[in-house]
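fyi for ur records
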Amino acid sequence: MFIPAVLILASLSAAPVVVPPQPAPGLEPVKKESGVDAIALPLVSFNSDLGFGYGAVGGMYLYSPGKAPYAHAIAAQVFFSSRGVQNHYLRYDGPQLIGPLRLEGRLEYRREMRSPFFGAGNKSAPDFKGDVNDPKYNFDKGAPGFWLRLRGRPFGPTHPLQSYVGYGWRYTSVDSAEASMLAKQKPLGIEGGSTGQLLAGVLWDTRDDESDPTVGGVEELALRVSGSATGSKYQYAGITLSERRYLKLSSRLTLAHRLTLDMLFGEVPFYEWSNTGGVNVSEGVGGMSSVRGIERNRFSGNIKAFSNTELRFQATNFQMFGQSLRLGAVVFMDFGRVWHPGVPDGKWYEWHPGIGGGLRLSKRAATVRMDYARSTETGAQRIYLTFGHMF
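which gave:
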């Protein structure tokens, strides 16, 4: 999940080399008829929202004739952070397990001893002074769960239309201090419980490269439905609309943009306010997957919108340990806002921005992302070191 550059470089210098399984079809076929590739790495990281982290991650590719880019992929992770986060998972990916259909699944356990809660709405917690360790704005959350997803291209492997169906289930436990904002507000979901979701979606994908696109884009419409029939304690539904677009300005310069709108309806537990749907889920508003520079999940509610714009520059290619690597840089601007019933959300133009820049170190589909971001509202500064492009 959070892999520093030196560990990526060390892994890339070994042979054979693989990268973690990618979430969407369309990867270049691996020129290997049969066999196994495997790799394991220690995790040592830092993130302004999660603190210092440590653990291990491993992956395995199994190849078979006629299966591209591989027949099966398995990945596992054990991760702990200094702010009380645990994130452990076991993931499977079978690109052509059932004919042309792709089966993906993940079993995971997540624990957060200081999960953020600032209340609902676009103007939540006006007295917050920037101390994310203040127990008033935290609670203890445990969330074991799993998901399964079946995807395919109904009009052929090269057609841009993709569709998927799936199911996800999670049991969330909640424990809040008596003086916390959560204990005082007592929103729906404070008693915890199960959230089973039926998932469905369609994508139109015209990107030239899934892991590092320079032209094209991908549009997605995703639905999720929870109710007693799906094994959920709460009755609600969600719609996610996402647009990602890439424009190649020159041989080294790419303009990338993402726009996301997520809407929840019904009896929504508070711990779902910050989540989006879709193939690649995000959370926010605030944090390294939505608006960088703002505290993680600083603003949340039933309706969330955020925009991310990056100018990506490929600086140079170089050799290290006999491997070809790419070094790049980005500057970016993010902004987002939320709407929630029953609370003041401010005027329509009151969005929360973050700006910054960073470095990218890549080999094939493997990319290390190192970002520095600043909130232009509060002046808060945050650092993110993670794996893969933001979008």
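Helices lie at 5-12, 181-185. thats all i got for now
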